[in-house]
């Protein structure tokens, strides 16, 4: 997949050039490649206008996702995915602190200037294997510095989300934030509240699902952003704050819902889950999972002494593996509770989660009236099954009657 995508990114550049346009890889993919990381996706910047990009690749292979900003999605072969092709542009004013009021198609030099940080402002020519650096990004990559392109105060005023992006990139690559950029963030931290909850939430998600999430949290604190984006953790200091950092560090490949559960368990305020999910407009799926994890944490923490049928009900839930990870974050991976849960989760499916003895349809077929208590009845039959009190369909039907 990765190499098919890379090949397609080369092809897109080649085709645009054949048609007489300038085309270069741009932004994150150049940065990642120089760092020796496989880029998540490739972006191409070009002198072709969106309409010209459509002519080169055909209408069926292009989607005008952000044509007013000059962005066109070009669809590749199945294994290669898609690539965003953006026309070199200069952004006009930002009266809403997010969308440029107008964009003007321009040159690579100008296009680099509108990007946020020097490490994100690089271009790469895949045919000549050459980096085009108009902003000193290569030196900052080598030195490990996140530095705003141009005047930090002005760049933050244009788009306040850049403050969170600075933290995210610094944490992700274990980079320092340049002094002037850092001061500007500290000075304007309170203005992050002008950014929509969704955009903040998306940024927080990206920051917190990354393995370096503890570093991100500590940068949120040192920049002053924490008070505005995550006031819930500001009360944690000293030992509990250290502990949270240790616990976050123990997570591997964690979902956003799990990371939130680890943080909220530390804060110990049940209402915090709701206010965070409202604020960041979390998907119900995430919010529900975080809730479920926090509600079942006590059973998880005491899994070594919890009676099996009770624990089994929890371990057959689709959130069980995350619950065990949450317990492991708190107690360490070799705690008795974690060890017991892992053993049980490794049982054959038929033993851990035996198929129900009867379904609702079975009960109706057996002459029971469907009604509101049906669900509860099925639950009780299931409990009896898991507790070993009944083992056959007939026993289940007898119990139902
Ligand atoms: P990631 O790997 O997290 O996607 P990325 O660098 O590709 O990192 P994107 O958010 O995908 O980040 O944006 C692609 C590029 O667009 C960035 O590298 C940067 O040059 C530019 N960019 C994105 N967001 C902004 C912004 N808010 N202000 C200025 N430039 C931005
Ligand atoms: Mg990207």
Question: What does it look like?
Answer:
This protein has 401 residues and is of the alpha+beta class. The mean pLDDT is 94. The protein has helices at residues 2-18, 28-35, 50-57, 108-114, 137-143, 152-158, 161-173, 179-188, 197-209, 213-223, 226-229, 238-250, 256-267, 270-279, 284-301, 308-315, 320-331, 336-345, 349-352, 360-365, 374-386, 393-400; strands at 23-26, 43-46, 62-66, 71-75, 82-87, 89-91, 103-105, 123-125, 130-132, 145-146, 176-177. 39% of the residues are buried. Adenosine-5'-triphosphate is lined by residues 27-28, 40, 43, 115-116, 120-121, 159, 161-162.
Task: Give me the secondary-structure topology.
Elements: H1 2-18, E1 23-26, H2 28-35, E2 43-46, H3 50-57, E3 62-66, E4 71-75, E5 82-87, E6 89-91, E7 103-105, H4 108-114, E8 123-125, E9 130-132, H5 137-143, E10 145-146, H6 152-158, H7 161-173, E11 176-177, H8 179-188, H9 197-209, H10 213-223, H11 226-229, H12 238-250, H13 256-267, H14 270-279, H15 284-301, H16 308-315, H17 320-331, H18 336-345, H19 349-352, H20 360-365, H21 374-386, H22 393-400
Parallel strand pairs: 2-5, 10-11
Antiparallel strand pairs: 1-2, 1-8, 3-4, 4-5, 6-7, 8-9
The structure holds adenosine-5'-triphosphate (ATP) and magnesium ion.
Magnesium ion (MG) binds next to loops.
